[in-house]
Amino acid sequence: MEIKNYSSSTSGFILLGLSSNPQLQKPLFAIFLTMYLVTMMGNVLIILAIRSDSRLHTPMYFFLSNLSFMDICFTMVIVPKMLVNLQSETKTISYVGCLVQMYFFMAFGNTDSYLLASMAIDRLVAICNPFHYDVVMNPRRCLLMLLGSCTISYLHALLRVLLISRLSFCASHVIKHFFCDTQPVLKLSCSDTSSSQIVVMTETLAVIVTPFLCVLFSYIRIIITVFRIPSAAGRWKAFSTCGSHLTVVALFYGSIIYVYFRPLSMYSVVKDRVATVTYTVVTPMLNPFIYSLRNKDMKRGLGKLRDRIHSQNNKMWNVKSGR
Predict the structure, then answer these.
(1) Is the pLDDT of residue 242 over 70?
(2) Alpha carbon 270 to chain centroid distance?
(3) Which of 57, 96, 260, 265 has the fewest Cβ atoms within 10 Å of its own Cβ atom?
(4) How far apart are alpha carbons 108 and 229 in whole angstroms?
Protein backbone atom coordinates (compact mmCIF):
# COMPACT_ATOMS: atom_id res chain seq x y z
CA MET A 1 0.00 0.00 0.00
CA GLU A 2 1.30 3.42 -0.92
CA ILE A 3 2.12 5.68 2.02
CA LYS A 4 1.48 9.33 1.42
CA ASN A 5 3.43 12.08 3.05
CA TYR A 6 1.18 14.94 4.12
CA SER A 7 3.93 17.34 5.02
CA SER A 8 3.94 18.96 1.60
CA SER A 9 2.36 22.34 1.11
CA THR A 10 -0.24 20.89 -1.29
CA SER A 11 -1.66 18.46 1.27
CA GLY A 12 -3.88 19.13 4.23
CA PHE A 13 -5.54 17.76 7.32
CA ILE A 14 -9.09 17.04 8.40
CA LEU A 15 -10.17 18.53 11.73
CA LEU A 16 -12.51 16.06 13.42
CA GLY A 17 -13.98 18.80 15.61
CA LEU A 18 -15.71 18.57 18.96
CA SER A 19 -18.13 15.84 17.92
CA SER A 20 -18.70 13.66 14.87
CA ASN A 21 -22.43 13.39 15.66
CA PRO A 22 -24.32 15.28 12.87
CA GLN A 23 -27.20 16.08 15.22
CA LEU A 24 -24.88 18.05 17.52
CA GLN A 25 -23.36 20.25 14.80
CA LYS A 26 -26.06 22.94 14.76
CA PRO A 27 -26.46 23.19 18.57
CA LEU A 28 -22.67 23.39 18.96
CA PHE A 29 -22.53 26.05 16.24
CA ALA A 30 -25.16 28.14 18.05
CA ILE A 31 -23.44 27.75 21.43
CA PHE A 32 -19.95 28.63 20.23
CA LEU A 33 -21.14 31.47 17.98
CA THR A 34 -22.86 33.02 21.01
CA MET A 35 -19.75 32.53 23.17
CA TYR A 36 -17.57 34.03 20.41
CA LEU A 37 -19.75 37.14 20.08
CA VAL A 38 -19.87 37.59 23.87
CA THR A 39 -16.07 37.25 24.00
CA MET A 40 -15.55 39.86 21.29
CA MET A 41 -18.03 42.31 22.76
CA GLY A 42 -16.87 41.89 26.35
CA ASN A 43 -13.18 42.34 25.62
CA VAL A 44 -13.77 45.29 23.29
CA LEU A 45 -15.81 46.98 26.03
CA ILE A 46 -12.98 46.41 28.53
CA ILE A 47 -10.47 48.04 26.16
CA LEU A 48 -12.75 50.99 25.38
CA ALA A 49 -13.61 51.53 29.05
CA ILE A 50 -9.93 51.63 30.05
CA ARG A 51 -9.02 53.98 27.21
CA SER A 52 -11.92 56.34 27.88
CA ASP A 53 -11.39 56.74 31.66
CA SER A 54 -8.17 58.55 32.62
CA ARG A 55 -8.38 57.11 36.15
CA LEU A 56 -7.82 53.66 34.63
CA HIS A 57 -4.56 54.71 32.95
CA THR A 58 -2.48 52.73 35.44
CA PRO A 59 -0.09 49.75 35.00
CA MET A 60 -2.72 47.24 36.17
CA TYR A 61 -5.25 48.35 33.57
CA PHE A 62 -2.56 48.78 30.93
CA PHE A 63 -1.85 45.06 31.24
CA LEU A 64 -5.58 44.24 31.47
CA SER A 65 -6.36 46.09 28.22
CA ASN A 66 -3.54 44.23 26.46
CA LEU A 67 -4.78 40.95 27.94
CA SER A 68 -8.23 41.67 26.50
CA PHE A 69 -6.68 42.46 23.11
CA MET A 70 -4.70 39.19 23.17
CA ASP A 71 -7.86 37.29 24.15
CA ILE A 72 -9.60 38.74 21.09
CA CYS A 73 -6.73 37.67 18.81
CA PHE A 74 -6.40 34.30 20.56
CA THR A 75 -10.10 33.51 20.08
CA MET A 76 -10.09 34.71 16.45
CA VAL A 77 -7.37 32.18 15.63
CA ILE A 78 -9.46 29.23 16.86
CA VAL A 79 -13.22 29.86 16.90
CA PRO A 80 -14.03 31.16 13.36
CA LYS A 81 -12.45 28.08 11.73
CA MET A 82 -14.24 25.84 14.23
CA LEU A 83 -17.58 27.50 13.39
CA VAL A 84 -16.97 27.06 9.66
CA ASN A 85 -16.16 23.38 10.16
CA LEU A 86 -19.32 22.86 12.21
CA GLN A 87 -21.31 23.99 9.17
CA SER A 88 -19.15 22.16 6.63
CA GLU A 89 -18.94 18.50 5.61
CA THR A 90 -15.28 18.57 4.56
CA LYS A 91 -13.75 20.14 7.73
CA THR A 92 -10.38 20.47 6.01
CA ILE A 93 -7.44 22.74 6.77
CA SER A 94 -4.39 23.09 4.55
CA TYR A 95 -0.96 22.05 5.81
CA VAL A 96 0.25 25.67 5.75
CA GLY A 97 -3.00 26.84 7.32
CA CYS A 98 -2.52 24.31 10.11
CA LEU A 99 1.00 25.57 10.86
CA VAL A 100 -0.14 29.20 10.74
CA GLN A 101 -3.01 28.48 13.13
CA MET A 102 -0.64 26.61 15.45
CA TYR A 103 1.84 29.51 15.39
CA PHE A 104 -0.63 32.27 16.27
CA PHE A 105 -2.43 30.08 18.80
CA MET A 106 0.81 29.55 20.72
CA ALA A 107 2.02 33.14 20.23
CA PHE A 108 -1.15 34.75 21.59
CA GLY A 109 -1.69 32.06 24.25
CA ASN A 110 1.82 32.43 25.65
CA THR A 111 1.54 36.22 25.59
CA ASP A 112 -1.59 35.82 27.72
CA SER A 113 0.48 33.77 30.17
CA TYR A 114 3.20 36.41 30.44
CA LEU A 115 0.67 39.21 30.80
CA LEU A 116 -0.91 37.36 33.73
CA ALA A 117 2.58 37.15 35.27
CA SER A 118 3.09 40.89 34.66
CA MET A 119 -0.21 41.61 36.41
CA ALA A 120 0.91 39.47 39.37
CA ILE A 121 4.14 41.51 39.59
CA ASP A 122 2.07 44.69 39.49
CA ARG A 123 -0.05 43.47 42.44
CA LEU A 124 3.11 42.40 44.28
CA VAL A 125 4.67 45.86 44.02
CA ALA A 126 1.37 47.62 44.83
CA ILE A 127 0.85 45.62 48.05
CA CYS A 128 4.39 44.89 49.22
CA ASN A 129 6.14 48.09 48.13
CA PRO A 130 3.40 50.73 47.70
CA PHE A 131 5.63 53.78 48.35
CA HIS A 132 7.86 52.92 45.38
CA TYR A 133 5.04 51.71 43.12
CA ASP A 134 5.13 54.68 40.72
CA VAL A 135 8.90 54.36 40.35
CA VAL A 136 9.03 50.57 39.92
CA MET A 137 5.98 50.26 37.65
CA ASN A 138 6.71 53.29 35.48
CA PRO A 139 5.29 53.44 31.91
CA ARG A 140 8.63 52.62 30.29
CA ARG A 141 9.07 49.46 32.38
CA CYS A 142 5.48 48.36 31.72
CA LEU A 143 6.04 48.78 27.99
CA LEU A 144 9.26 46.76 28.19
CA MET A 145 7.41 44.00 30.06
CA LEU A 146 4.78 43.92 27.32
CA LEU A 147 7.37 43.84 24.52
CA GLY A 148 9.32 41.14 26.35
CA SER A 149 6.16 39.06 26.74
CA CYS A 150 5.41 39.30 23.02
CA THR A 151 9.00 38.63 21.91
CA ILE A 152 9.46 35.50 24.04
CA SER A 153 6.03 34.16 23.04
CA TYR A 154 6.51 34.71 19.30
CA LEU A 155 9.97 33.11 19.33
CA HIS A 156 8.62 30.15 21.30
CA ALA A 157 5.80 29.69 18.76
CA LEU A 158 8.24 29.93 15.85
CA LEU A 159 10.51 27.25 17.34
CA ARG A 160 7.56 24.92 17.92
CA VAL A 161 6.19 25.34 14.39
CA LEU A 162 9.64 24.81 12.82
CA LEU A 163 9.95 21.62 14.86
CA ILE A 164 6.55 20.34 13.65
CA SER A 165 7.29 21.31 10.04
CA ARG A 166 10.24 18.89 9.92
CA LEU A 167 8.02 15.87 10.66
CA SER A 168 6.43 13.56 8.09
CA PHE A 169 2.73 12.72 8.23
CA CYS A 170 1.81 9.39 6.66
CA ALA A 171 -1.48 7.60 5.95
CA SER A 172 -4.01 9.10 8.40
CA HIS A 173 -4.36 12.87 8.25
CA VAL A 174 -7.36 13.24 10.56
CA ILE A 175 -6.64 15.51 13.52
CA LYS A 176 -8.82 14.42 16.43
CA HIS A 177 -9.32 17.96 17.65
CA PHE A 178 -11.09 21.18 16.66
CA PHE A 179 -7.84 23.03 15.81
CA CYS A 180 -4.19 22.32 15.06
CA ASP A 181 -2.69 21.76 18.49
CA THR A 182 0.72 20.21 19.13
CA GLN A 183 -0.24 16.89 20.73
CA PRO A 184 -2.94 15.84 18.20
CA VAL A 185 -0.63 16.73 15.29
CA LEU A 186 2.31 14.84 16.80
CA LYS A 187 0.08 11.78 17.14
CA LEU A 188 -0.30 11.70 13.34
CA SER A 189 3.41 11.78 12.52
CA CYS A 190 5.08 8.68 11.17
CA SER A 191 8.48 10.16 12.08
CA ASP A 192 10.26 9.35 15.31
CA THR A 193 8.73 11.99 17.63
CA SER A 194 10.62 11.04 20.79
CA SER A 195 13.19 13.82 20.37
CA SER A 196 10.45 16.26 19.38
CA GLN A 197 8.48 15.37 22.50
CA ILE A 198 11.54 15.98 24.69
CA VAL A 199 12.18 19.36 23.05
CA VAL A 200 8.49 20.30 23.28
CA MET A 201 8.25 19.31 26.93
CA THR A 202 11.52 21.02 27.91
CA GLU A 203 10.78 24.18 26.00
CA THR A 204 7.20 24.27 27.28
CA LEU A 205 8.47 23.95 30.84
CA ALA A 206 10.81 26.89 30.27
CA VAL A 207 8.27 29.14 28.56
CA ILE A 208 5.01 28.35 30.38
CA VAL A 209 6.23 27.36 33.85
CA THR A 210 8.38 30.51 34.18
CA PRO A 211 5.41 32.93 34.24
CA PHE A 212 3.40 30.47 36.34
CA LEU A 213 6.17 30.36 38.96
CA CYS A 214 6.37 34.14 38.80
CA VAL A 215 2.63 34.30 39.61
CA LEU A 216 3.03 31.70 42.38
CA PHE A 217 5.97 33.39 44.11
CA SER A 218 4.32 36.81 43.75
CA TYR A 219 1.20 35.64 45.56
CA ILE A 220 3.20 33.84 48.25
CA ARG A 221 4.89 37.16 49.05
CA ILE A 222 1.55 39.00 48.81
CA ILE A 223 -0.09 36.57 51.24
CA ILE A 224 2.79 36.89 53.72
CA THR A 225 2.58 40.69 53.52
CA VAL A 226 -1.21 40.79 53.82
CA PHE A 227 -1.26 38.62 56.95
CA ARG A 228 1.05 41.14 58.59
CA ILE A 229 -1.59 43.85 58.21
CA PRO A 230 -3.11 44.31 61.69
CA SER A 231 -6.71 45.13 60.73
CA ALA A 232 -9.11 42.64 59.13
CA ALA A 233 -10.50 45.40 56.92
CA GLY A 234 -7.02 46.17 55.61
CA ARG A 235 -6.35 42.51 54.86
CA TRP A 236 -9.67 42.15 53.02
CA LYS A 237 -9.03 45.29 50.97
CA ALA A 238 -5.60 43.99 49.92
CA PHE A 239 -6.95 40.57 49.00
CA SER A 240 -9.91 42.03 47.11
CA THR A 241 -7.55 43.74 44.65
CA CYS A 242 -6.17 40.30 43.69
CA GLY A 243 -9.39 38.28 43.56
CA SER A 244 -10.20 38.81 39.88
CA HIS A 245 -6.66 38.11 38.76
CA LEU A 246 -6.42 34.92 40.84
CA THR A 247 -9.69 33.60 39.36
CA VAL A 248 -8.41 34.10 35.80
CA VAL A 249 -5.03 32.55 36.69
CA ALA A 250 -6.72 29.44 38.13
CA LEU A 251 -8.88 28.93 35.03
CA PHE A 252 -6.07 29.58 32.55
CA TYR A 253 -3.20 27.66 34.12
CA GLY A 254 -5.33 24.84 35.49
CA SER A 255 -6.50 23.73 32.04
CA ILE A 256 -3.12 24.35 30.36
CA ILE A 257 -1.21 22.28 32.93
CA TYR A 258 -3.69 19.43 32.47
CA VAL A 259 -3.36 19.43 28.67
CA TYR A 260 0.36 20.02 28.10
CA PHE A 261 2.27 18.62 31.04
CA ARG A 262 1.71 14.95 30.32
CA PRO A 263 3.49 12.46 28.05
CA LEU A 264 2.00 11.88 24.60
CA SER A 265 1.07 8.31 25.65
CA MET A 266 -1.41 9.76 28.21
CA TYR A 267 -3.16 11.91 25.61
CA SER A 268 -6.97 11.59 25.86
CA VAL A 269 -9.07 13.00 23.02
CA VAL A 270 -12.30 13.69 24.92
CA LYS A 271 -10.76 15.00 28.16
CA ASP A 272 -8.27 17.18 26.30
CA ARG A 273 -11.02 18.70 24.15
CA VAL A 274 -12.94 19.74 27.26
CA ALA A 275 -9.82 21.20 28.92
CA THR A 276 -8.78 22.95 25.70
CA VAL A 277 -12.24 24.52 25.26
CA THR A 278 -11.81 25.93 28.78
CA TYR A 279 -8.74 28.03 27.99
CA THR A 280 -9.40 28.73 24.29
CA VAL A 281 -13.08 29.72 24.51
CA VAL A 282 -14.43 29.84 28.06
CA THR A 283 -11.64 31.78 29.81
CA PRO A 284 -11.43 34.61 27.20
CA MET A 285 -15.23 34.91 27.43
CA LEU A 286 -15.28 35.02 31.24
CA ASN A 287 -12.34 37.42 31.68
CA PRO A 288 -14.36 40.62 31.02
CA PHE A 289 -17.09 39.50 33.46
CA ILE A 290 -14.58 38.51 36.14
CA TYR A 291 -12.70 41.81 35.93
CA SER A 292 -15.79 44.02 35.61
CA LEU A 293 -18.19 42.40 38.11
CA ARG A 294 -15.59 42.17 40.89
CA ASN A 295 -13.87 45.50 40.28
CA LYS A 296 -15.33 48.85 41.30
CA ASP A 297 -12.93 50.82 39.07
CA MET A 298 -13.95 48.80 36.00
CA LYS A 299 -17.64 49.19 36.85
CA ARG A 300 -17.13 52.95 37.03
CA GLY A 301 -15.20 52.92 33.74
CA LEU A 302 -17.89 50.88 31.98
CA GLY A 303 -20.56 53.20 33.38
CA LYS A 304 -18.64 56.22 32.09
CA LEU A 305 -18.30 54.55 28.66
CA ARG A 306 -22.03 53.81 28.61
CA ASP A 307 -22.87 57.44 29.46
CA ARG A 308 -20.51 58.67 26.75
CA ILE A 309 -22.08 56.38 24.13
CA HIS A 310 -25.57 57.47 25.26
CA SER A 311 -24.54 61.12 25.00
CA GLN A 312 -23.15 60.61 21.49
CA ASN A 313 -26.35 58.86 20.42
CA ASN A 314 -28.43 61.74 21.76
CA LYS A 315 -26.29 64.27 19.85
CA MET A 316 -26.66 62.28 16.62
CA TRP A 317 -30.41 62.03 17.18
CA ASN A 318 -30.69 65.78 17.78
CA VAL A 319 -28.68 66.51 14.59
CA LYS A 320 -30.89 64.20 12.53
CA SER A 321 -34.08 65.64 13.96
CA GLY A 322 -32.85 69.21 13.37
CA ARG A 323 -32.91 70.27 17.01
Answers:
(1) yes
(2) 21
(3) 265
(4) 38
